[in-house]
Design goal:
Distance between the termini: 36 Å
Number of helices: 17
Helix content: 25-40%
Largest sheet: 9 strands, antiparallel
Radius of gyration: 27 Å
Bound molecules: alpha-L-fucopyranose
Shape: globular
Number of strands: 32
């Protein structure tokens, strides 16, 4: 019995799933028998969206490496100057000349195009390590016994425990979104045994003033590169014993029964074009810390857990696994070589970890999750730990809607809205077009221009792809106000850009993206498939949305262009879905990007049932690209195979990801650590269990044979529906559909191939349905709960 949709800690709706043959759910926990030595591979992440920390859990020295999402070098105020990547003089003539060359010659080497168009990025900046809170404990001669370091996903708390010299020590760590702080509690089972010294350790690319007063350590300064002011503070609170401020800015604790440390951090960053600066952070950080310090530890923990569990607890997954008596790193090593039930437990844990990571790195009021979520220990992280928008940022948010964490999309939506003003300048200066766009990547500072990486700099579809997140948020929620006031201006302006920027291909008169470049290989051409499919997706969404927001005239313009748009879907000479408009694909190409399958996922232009020939071609492409690749590439392919309804292949991809692209702390490795693979795979697992991209709710579309029985609750489908499912012997037994809005629900399920019933929960009344085969339709009412079950006589329903 588990709590679902908790209303508070005390009150929750109890899930009574009588039909389930499964055991009680396993605890969701990562655990290790030793402290972390390596940040990337072993430390455990906690986070509250804006704040993140990695827990090492050392016995004599505990390192709590921490981050605040807005601490970035580069941008306005940077020493070397900053221009958002957008040239002061229009470069649209240059773009046009490359386009004309492509019209005449067919293709151009990426290096040649880059020499004509690319630009050296100035002050793009890097996401920064904030620093470490270091706790040095007195060395004790006796050995450490029973050491355990864990991350409890149900509780949202990391924990370290061990015994030494007959004393049991325990440390709890959590990051609280409601209080905006990181909290650490250290206790012993005997009085007076907690003694340590606390210090900040900060990187040296900034000015730093360290001080301590009345148990409060404060670190303030500014980044040398751009003068961005920062502040971090830790309040040390003790129960018993003695607490002293140290001359070096640290705090010492001697002989306490327990200690609580509360950390707050912030910067002068503000998500606002063009200055991106707000007030000095000292006052806000101080006030936040003060507020939190006045609350008791149990009150802080309760507020955190009420907030966290209300979101995390919405989805439960049980694949029939049972946790082996192995630590998580050993379990990962055993994966695929041990008991199937242990494998199922690890897959479940990995799925829920993805949800945990998203919740911990993306909450309203801060920047979205970057390439490393919110966790970064370097001043020069890989790819700047930025926002790549030719797959990575979008992938971060794939699980948000489907795994019932729609609130985590908020930072992405704010971020996109803030990209529109600099994106308008980019559209104007680079392409001479209205609307907005951006290219390969962006930073915290509204970078919307070009960089000088030949094989990736020209990805003008990025804004259109980001606009998909806007429309998907609407499709899941059905929130008409959101669509009209937040999504529509972004979608409309992205479409305006393409209405102006598309060119007529003289070869066939179709509208194409030109210049166009399929990430991140091959040559420049006109009308690469991915470019066309993304614009197709945007235009389709705009045409659908226009009448809903009362902007029919614009919708008609876009419809007219959509009709002329090259759809970017061609089957090539070896049966593949072509990556380019010309049939250039090489069968031995195993490049990680499968961008030309955008139409299959995350698009909806290709579906197994609607466009079977194109789906078959997508299959040929996926086979030839192969399964082995970088972390995010494998994750993307899980989703693609799920859309092709091949559950066994999707699971094979997931297994490969776990075996070859997952670090002992279960973070995805590209390599190096890059969080998109975690998020993409989590979305992929949801996609295996439930799909809704094409207007019907497809129950268990890609169930692998290795998951014969299971249960999932709380998955979301487009059309504002929440779905609980049970299955056994590889087929669905029961689906419970919670309708959030009035409307027609179309359900595809193998349940309909035998006797079944559909009843309204509560009244038990049969529901009037229409349809045939595996698809049935019925009228749902807001707040209605509909129970579809196998095994009763069809006669009880009003269906055929
Ligand atoms: C894209 C990928 C790389 C890497 C980078 C952050 O450019 O092609 O593999 O993931 O983003």
């Amino acid at each position: 019995m588990r709590c679902r949709r908790p209303i508070g800690l005390a009150a929750c709706i109890v899930l009574l799933n009588l039909a389930s043959p499964l055991r009680a759910a396993e605890p969701l926990r990562l655990w290790y028998p030793a402290p972390a030595r390596d940040w990337e591979r072993e430390a455990l992440p906690i986070g509250s969206g804006s704040l993140g920390a990695m827990i090492y859990g050392g016995v004599e020295l505990d390192r709590i490496q921490f981050n605040e999402k807005s601490l970035w070098t580069g941008g306005p105020g940077a020493r070397a100057g900053y221009d958002f990547g957008v040239p002061a003089d229009s470069m649209s003539a240059k773009v046009r000349s490359v386009a004309q060359a492509l019209e005449a010659g067919g293709s151009m080497a990426a290096e040649t195009a880059a020499a004509r168009l690319g630009r050296r990025a100035r002050s793009f900046g890097d996401y920064q390590n904030f620093g470490e809170l270091q706790l040095s404990f007195d060395a004790v001669e006796s050995p450490v016994e029973g050491y355990r370091r864990e991350l409890d996903l149900d509780a949202g708390v990391a924990r370290v425990s061990y015994s030494q010299a007959g004393v049991r020590f325990e440390r709890d760590y959590f990051a609280s979104y409601p209080d905006g702080v990181i909290v650490l509690k250290i206790q012993a089972d005997q009085p007076g045994r907690v003694s340590f010294q606390a210090h900040f350790s900060l990187p040296d690319n900034r000015s730093a003033a360290l001080s301590s007063r009345r148990g409060r350590m404060v670190a303030t300064g500014a980044l040398s590169d751009n003068g961005l002011a920062y502040a971090a503070a830790v309040q040390v609170l003790v129960q018993g014993g003695e607490r002293n401020d140290l001359a070096d800015g640290g705090v010492s604790v001697r002989g306490a029964d327990a200690a609580v440390l509360i950390l707050a951090a912030g910067t002068a960053y503000r998500l606002h074009y063009p200055d991106y600066r707000g007030p000095d952070p000292r006052a806000a950080v101080g006030a936040r810390l003060e507020r939190a310090s006045r609350r008791s530890y149990p009150a802080l923990l309760e507020a955190h857990q009420r907030d966290y569990r209300a979101l995390f607890g919405r989805v439960t997954l049980d694949l029939g696994g049972s946790e082996p008596a192995l630590s998580t790193d050993a379990q990962l090593r055993q994966y695929g070589h041990g008991a199937a039930s242990a494998d199922r437990a690890l897959e479940t844990l990995y799925f829920q970890y993805g949800r945990y990571l998203l919740l911990s790195s993306s909450r309203a009021g801060s920047l979205p999750a970057n390439l490393q979520g919110v966790w970064n220990s370097s001043d020069t992280p890989p790819w700047n730990a930025d926002y790549h928008v030719n797959i990575n940022l979008q992938m971060n948010y794939w699980p948000a809607e489907s795994t019932n964490l729609a609130e985590t999309v908020d930072p992405l939506l704010d971020f996109i809205a803030a990209l529109v003003p600099p994106g308008r300048r980019a559209a104007q200066q680079i392409q001479g077009a209205p609307g907005w766009t951006l290219f390969l990547n962006t930073n915290a500072w509204g970078y919307t221009g070009l960089i000088d990486w030949p094989t990736a700099f020209w990805q003008p579809e990025a804004a259109a792809w980001l606009a998909q997140s806007e429309y998907e948020h609407y499709r899941y929620s059905g929130d008409a106000r959101f669509l009209r006031y937040r999504a529509w201006p972004v979608m409309r302006a992205a479409a305006q850009y393409w209405l102006a920027a598309l060119r007529v291909d003289p070869r066939d008169g179709r509208l194409v993206v030109n210049p166009s470049y399929s990430p991140e290989h091959g040559e420049f051409t006109a009308g690469a498939s991915m470019s066309q499919q993304i614009v197709f997706d945007l235009f389709t969404n705009v045409v659908e949305a226009a009448p809903l927001v009362g902007d029919r005239v614009f919708g008609e313009h876009v419809r007219a262009a959509l009709v002329r748009l090259d759809p970017g879907l061609r089957v090539g000479h070896w049966g593949q879905l072509q990556e380019w408009k010309q049939d250039l694909d090489v069968q031995s190409d195993d490049h990680r990007h499968v961008s030309h399958l955008f139409a299959l996922h995350p698009g909806r232009q290709v579906t197994l049932l609607g466009t079977p020939a194109l789906a078959a071609a997508a299959r040929v492409t996926l086979d030839s690209r192969g399964d082995a690749s970088t972390g995010w590439s494998r994750a993307w392919k899980i989703n693609s195979w799920a859309r092709l309804q091949d559950g066994d292949r999707a699971l094979r991809l997931l297994a490969g990801l776990l075996a070859d692209s997952t670090l002992p702390n279960l973070l995805d490795t590209h390599p190096p650590f890059q969080i998109d693979g975690n998020f993409g795979a989590t979305a992929g697992i949801a996609e295996m269990l439930l799909q809704s991209q094409d207007g019907e709710l497809h129950v268990l579309p890609a169930l692998p044979q290795a998951w014969p029985e299971g249960r999932v609750t709380g998955l979301r489908a487009r059309g504002n529906v929440t779905v609980d499912l049970n299955w056994s012997a590889g087929v669905a037994d029961r689906a419970e559909l919670h309708a959030g809005s009035d409307g027609l629900l179309r359900v595809r399920s193998s349940i309909f191939s035998g006797p079944w019933s559909l009843r309204e929960q509560g009244t038990g009344r049969p529901v009037a349905v229409s349809g045939s085969g595996e698809v049935r339709e019925f009228q749902a009412q807001r707040s209605g709960v509909y129970v579809l079950e196998r095994g009763e006589s069809e006669a009880v329903s009003l269906g055929e």
